[in-house]
Amino acid sequence: MRTLGVDPGSVRTGLAVADDDVPVAIPLVTLRHKSVADAIEQLVRVVREQEVREIVIGLPLALDGRDGDAARRSRKLGGELSVRTKVPVVMWDERLSSASAERALRAQGMKGPARRNVVDQAAATLLLQSYLDAQRDRTWNEDSAEPSQSDPHVMVPPRRERAVVPPRRERAVRAARRR
Question: Which of 7, 119, 150, 178 has the highest CB neighbour number within 10 Å of its CB?
Fold first, then answer.
C-alpha cells in the first residue's frame, strides 16, 4: 500500500508516492487537465492503480494562515476524492513548497521547459515528505496535538488559526512574513 502526495494546480497537478515499507517520497507523474472534473477522474485512476491507502493534498494557505481561492479549490478536490475513492484524505499545509521545488531544480541546473515539466512532481514530493516526516515525529512524540477534524476522511489545520507548518519550513514562513 502507498501514500499519494498531490500538489494541485489549475492546469497541472504533481504527484508523488511513498510505500508503507520505506517512508520516502518519490516523484510519480504530472497530470495535465482542463478542468477539476478531469483532474478528479485522473486522480481516481491513479489511486486505484497505485493501491493508495491515504492521499495527502497540498493546502496552499496564505502566509497568515487564511484560505484563498486555491485553498478552497484544494479543499473541494479533497472532499470529492474522499467520496469517490473511499480513501482517507489529509489536507497538508504546502506554503512555499512550489517555490522551494523551483529553487531546488534551478540549483540542479535545470532550465525552462525541462524544469516546468517536473516542478509540480518535485513540489508534491516535498509536500509528501514533509507529511511523512511529521507522522514519524508524531509517533516519537505522543504529546503532539492533532489538527482538528471536521470530517473523518479530511484532516485539515484549524481555520483562522495558525496552520500546521513543518518545523524545517517554519523559518522560511517567518522570513516571508517579515517582508
Answer: 7
